[in-house]
Design goal:
- With about 170 residues, the chain is mostly helical.
- It is built from seven helices and no strands.
- The longest helix is centred in the middle third of the chain and has 30 residues.
- It is globular, with a radius of gyration of 17 Å.
């Protein structure tokens, strides 16, 4: 079986792989009461959601037929609001960690994981199928996404997503 020279994943496929990695991390965290939530929350906030907010959602809006169908516009608006909610729950996790109320902290962490998983499912089922950009726009979006990933830290990104340097080389 020959290996493809270039996987050429688009940004939506990359985000969906990140969603799968988050589901696995969350399952592990629920089963083991892992403290990995802090690293995952930072990844979601400063890397994954940032790519969606700054690059993917605006391009989706731009690429959809004019006028944007009301349902899709509403779905996008709700998913953008979800990011703010997810950030607020992340902030609450930090506050509860400092305050030391273990029971409230556990509930906030569960709420966080469930909210992120529900949100990611919404993206996958409601809007990602509308991604339709030119090859040049895709290249530009991926390039900007990798700038955000590098700011987050390649090692940290690889550890969370399961991507490797070799995989990234053949993806691009």
């Amino acid at each position: 079986m020959a290996v493809r020279e270039n996987l050429n994943l688009n940004i939506i496929e990359q985000l969906m792989i990140e969603h799968a990695a988050l589901r696995l991390h969350f399952r592990f965290a629920k089963e083991t009461n892992s403290n990995a939530i802090y690293e995952l929350e930072e990844f979601v906030r400063t890397c994954h959601a940032r790519i969606e907010d700054e690059l993917v959602f605006p391009k989706l809006k731009e690429s959809l037929s004019k006028p944007i169908p009301e349902k899709v516009r509403n779905d996008l608006s709700r998913l953008e609001a979800d990011h703010r909610l997810i950030d607020k729950i992340g902030d609450q996790i930090k506050v509860q960690t400092i305050q030391g109320d273990v029971e409230i902290l556990r509930k906030r962490i569960l709420l966080y994981m469930n909210t992120v998983e529900s949100h990611n499912y919404g993206e996958e089922s409601l809007i990602f199928q509308h991604w339709n950009v030119s090859h040049a726009e895709e290249r530009e979006t991926k390039s900007k996404a990798w700038e955000i990933i590098r700011l987050f830290g390649l090692g940290r990104y690889f550890a969370i997503t399961g991507f490797s340097e070799e995989l990234v080389k053949i993806m691009q």
